[in-house]
């Protein structure tokens, strides 16, 4: 049996920097990883949707993951995303994660096929058997069109490898369900504007794309709520972060905003791969203003103002 991974802290689903030709920019990715290590994040995720996995081949995703495992060099746990339309591709990614020494895999519902709960569970268990690694489930019905409901959780929850779930439904009742009825599956926040609620209900980790460019700020909220248990201050921090979350989600340009956020830190994120395009000047200006205000407000809170 694979060792149990404790989900604790901020986990960054890494962007994939691309150069002017559209190739993966490994020096830029290396610089980003070092920045996140220095900032104190608690783990990184390779091959998530924030990393534009839908625009990459299985071979590219395995190469990326292997690079990230090598770059982190045991300083942070690496979780490898296995999301794919074909089960065979997910199995290849899961086996690759095992062979390269990743700590866990992130396992979502195959998009587009709209499986039943039983079909989805059997698919997940097939990937589990192939990897024998700790598994973090990924419930995101807004993108996958399928909920990981009770039947699914009852089936896959029997595997001792299923140790957590990134809950991205946006339905607060799911938080209640997971906390009360599935306490053996560690709950991780996957819906940024509900981070405070997740922490209040016992979640001890947050998988947040915004930590690509604001890692210290995300760590600050986690430490305030989870480590210090100061939800009064946590509400002030969360209130300051909500405008950022609204900008990230508006107009369906989430990944574009995250990439431009990375650019504002002086690191290179590069272009988007088709079919997506980057932000226009007005969108960039709005995001930059929100980031400046957020940083200023959180600095004041840290100073006790």
Describe this structure in words.
By secondary structure, the chain is α/β, with parallel strands linked by helices. It has one domain: Aldolase class I (TIM Barrel), CATH 3.20.20. 49% of the residues lie in helices and 12% in strands. The chain is built from 12 helices and 8 strands. The N and C termini lie far apart (49 Å).
Mean pLDDT: 96
Query: Strands of the largest sheet, in order across it?
Result: 1-2-3-4-5-6-7-8
Helix count? 12
- Taken as a percent bin, the fraction of beta residues is 5-15%
Can you tell me the CATH architecture? Alpha-Beta Barrel
H/E element sequence:
EHEHEHEHEHHEHEHEHHHH
Biggest β-sheet, characterized? 8 strands, parallel, barrel
Please give the CATH class.
Answer: Alpha Beta
Query: What is the β-strand count?
Result: 8
In one word, what is the shape? globular
The CATH homologous superfamily is termed Aldolase class I
Overall tally of structural domains: 1
Give the low-confidence spans: none
Give the helix proportion (percent range).
40-55%
The structure class reads alpha/beta
Distance between the termini: 49 Å
Radius of gyration: 18 Å
